[in-house]
Design brief:
The chain is an alpha/beta fold. It has helices at 20-29, 48-55, 69-80, 91-99, 105-112, 125-129, 131-142, 168-179, 214-225, 255-268, 318-323, 343-354, 395-415; strands at residues 6-11, 33-38, 83-89, 117-121, 146-147, 151-154, 160-164, 189-194, 199-200, 206-207, 229-234, 248-251, 275-278, 285-287, 312-314, 332-339, 358-363, 375-376, 378-382, 387-389, 393-394. The radius of gyration is 26 Å and the shape is elongated.
Length: 417
């Protein structure tokens, strides 16, 4: 979604200015057109040449340079931008933006820019906490700006506190979120499930599966980037992913907990849920009576030959239950089927049995398409009998393809008598 987006990046004079170079690199790699503006003090930390080499575009640093080109360009830069991002934003620049000053290239462009304003404050913790800085931030938020909260950690002063420049991945997530506000899921509320459920045998052991949660997280992030309000209900995940930005995250453990969370989300949402995408790998069975204490070798729970017998009972089918729940009648429902044999037959059966709008099936025994991989090869089964086979793709692209097919279903339901 960043391809060909015009982003004006203002870099202020703080020690974190050097970190903005990585941000420019990542934005450029994603296809964005990045125009960098350095404040006068920022040039003392990092040179314009660094950003020009990374952005492949001219860098602006002095509104009053002799040719007059920068002064002439500030209106065009502001008017053509899709986003104005100031990172790092120092206390001084925040104060000047709040007061509407236009005494350098960055603040002049800011006044001429109708695009969303995204600010990433970075400074010493006492400066950040000062009443004046907080008042300036509130003023900017009231005018529509979005603030990326600074992180807590080691600061240049040697202290540990709030004020650390956010990681590039966090900044990119905020950029996508702000740019996606007008997307095709704007105004929608969606629920996505991810990861695997774990059914306890005793306080130590459980029955689980190999789900990493990557597919579910990709679906949640793609929906956010298209403007949706997203609730992500996640079970156990093996992927070392940070908590997603701009997404409500609820953690569950067992299938019964996942069921309760999904039912609550669908039934209790004040404005209703538009779509439910069940990407979680749900355990079909659970131990009927988990042991209260750890089961030890030689304990009374063992059989005479030293083996252990566990009685498993069927877990509820969450999607099948929702098919007959009138409070979920208007929800577009998407299921997943991770299979190892007879993929098409099993997927078609699940689609019909659970009365789904779409079912996404994959052969988890296939290379590059199983649990924990960065890619997936899926077939999308439609209620009308159509089947679309997608190529092996990164999971982010699979997520985009799935939402591409959900959006028309949402629009169709709006026009249905």
């Amino acid at each position: 979604m960043l391809k060909d987006k015009r982003i004006v990046l203002g870099v202020c004079g703080g020690i974190a200015a050097y970190k903005a170079a990585d941000l420019v690199s990542k934005l450029q790699q994603a296809g964005a057109l990045v125009d960098v503006i350095l404040t006068e003090r920022a040039t003392e930390f990092v040179t314009p040449l660094t950003f020009a080499a990374l952005s492949h575009r001219r860098v602006y640093a002095n509104l009053w340079e002799p040719s007059g080109e920068a002064a002439a360009r500030h209106i065009e830069l502001g008017q053509s931008a899709d986003l104005l991002l100031v990172a790092p934003a120092t206390a001084n620049t925040l104060a000047r933006l709040a007061q509407g000053m236009a005494d350098d290239m960055l603040t002049a462009v800011a006044l001429a820019c109708p695009a969303p304003l995204l600010l990433a404050p970075a400074m010493e913790s006492h400066m950040y906490a000062h009443a004046a800085t907080q008042a300036n931030l509130r003023t900017l938020v009231e005018r529509g700006a979005t603030i990326v909260p600074p992180e807590t950690g080691h600061l240049a002063s040697g202290e540990v506190g709030v004020g650390r420049f956010p990681e590039t991945a966090t900044l990119l997530a905020y950029v996508r979120r702000v740019l996606g506000r007008g997307g095709d899921l704007a105004g929608r509320r969606v629920v996505v499930t991810a990861g695997g459920t774990q059914e306890p045998l005793d306080p130590v052991r459980y029955i689980g599966n190999r789900s990493s949660g990557l597919m579910g997280f990709a679906l949640a992030e793609e929906a956010r980037d298209r403007g949706a309000e997203v609730l992500l209900i996640a079970g156990a995940t093996t992927a070392t992913e940070p908590e997603p930005v701009g997404i409500e995250l609820r953690r569950v453990g067992t299938t019964l907990e996942l069921r309760a969370a999904v039912r609550a989300a669908v039934r209790e949402a004040v404005v209703g849920v538009d779509a439910l995408v069940m990407a979680a790998a749900v355990a079909d069975y659970r131990v009927e009576q988990p042991a209260a204490q750890k089961i030890k070798k030689g304990s009374a729970a063992e059989n005479a030959d030293g083996s252990l017998t566990l009685r498993l009972v069927t877990n509820p089918d969450i999607l099948a239950e929702l098919a007959t729940d009138e409070r979920a009648a208007g929800v577009v429902r998407v299921g997943f089927a991770a299979e190892t044999t007879e993929v098409a037959k099993n997927a078609a059966s699940k689609l019909e049995r659970k009365q789904l709008d779409l079912l996404v099936a994959n052969d988890v025994a296939k290379a590059g398409s199983g649990f924990g991989t960065e890619t997936n090869e899926v077939a999308i089964f439609h209620r009308d009998g159509r089947v679309e086979q997608l190529a092996l793709l990164p999971k982010a692209e699979v997520a985009a393809a799935i939402w591409d097919r959900v959006v028309p279903l949402l629009r169709a339901r709006e026009t249905r008598p």
